[in-house]
Amino acid sequence: MTAPAHPVIGVLALQGDVREHLVALVAAGAVARPVRRPEELAQVAGLVIPGGESTTISKLAHLFGMMEPLRERVRSGMPVYGTCAGLILLADKILDPRSGQETIGGIEMIVRRNAFGRQNESFEAAVEVAGVEGGPVEGVFIRAPWVESVGADVEVLAEYDGHIVAVRQGRVLATSFHPELTGDHRMHGLFADMVRAAG
């Protein structure tokens, strides 16, 4: 059975850069759809969890009845890509969680929220990402987390200033930065390829 050339990939549309991710996924050859409810989640082959505010996304996921369906799809092997807040939500552990903050899990890592500073300390930087050809990816870091430590099965794809900023474990991919804000769609291309490979 051949993988679909244009896989259907959802963007969790509870908060964050939803439109920008939809545009980037289409540019990467996917069919892109916003996902807010369990029945919409059931219709996609992969999912992007965008940046935003990780505590807010976690609370909204509960409100929309999405938290358990999300965890179940990740456990069952659906490819997922989290950016910034999405990286936090895919972590098994947060160093400094806010009260009541939960994660979906999927990557054996410990993350630190807002590690690169506050909103006014946002910056752009060129990041070499393993598996992405054509030179560095331009990373936009906005109140970005970093990865403090990873488990044995986690592949570190990129570091910046001595800190881990991109990781992959199986079918789950995460970056501290926002590739959807730059017009460079190679990270979304990498993820679309992961979804195709998953069949």
List the helices and strands and how they pair.
Layout: E1 8-12, H1 18-27, E2 31-35, H2 38-41, E3 46-49, H3 54-63, H4 67-75, E4 80-83, H5 85-89, E5 91-94, E6 107-112, E7 123-127, E8 137-141, E9 146-150, E10 155-160, E11 163-169, E12 172-175, H6 186-198
Parallel strand pairs: 1-2, 1-3, 3-4, 4-12, 5-6
Antiparallel strand pairs: 6-9, 7-8, 10-11, 11-12
Outline the structure in words.
This protein has 199 residues and is an alpha/beta fold. 26% of the residues lie in helices and 30% in strands. It has six helices and twelve strands. The protein has helices at 18-27, 38-41, 54-63, 67-75, 85-89, 186-198, and strands at residues 8-12, 31-35, 46-49, 80-83, 91-94, 107-112, 123-127, 137-141, 146-150, 155-160, 163-169, 172-175. The strands form three sheets. It has a seven-stranded mixed beta sheet. Strand 11 (163-169) and strand 12 form a beta hairpin. It starts with 7 loop residues before the first strand and ends with a helix. The mean pLDDT is 94.
Question: TL;DR?
Answer:
The protein is an alpha/beta fold. It contains 6 helices and 12 strands.
Keywords:
alpha/beta; 26% helix; 12 strands; 199 residues; seven-stranded mixed sheet; three-stranded mixed sheet; 6 helices
How is the biggest beta sheet arranged?
7 strands, mixed
* Structural class designation: alpha/beta
Q: What Rg do the Cα atoms give?
A: 15 Å
Helix content: 25-40%
- Total of DSSP H or I helical runs spanning 4+ residues: 6
Mean pLDDT: 94
Give the strand order of the largest sheet, numbering strands 1, 2, ... along the chain: 2-1-3-4-12-11-10
Q: What percent strand?
A: 25-35%
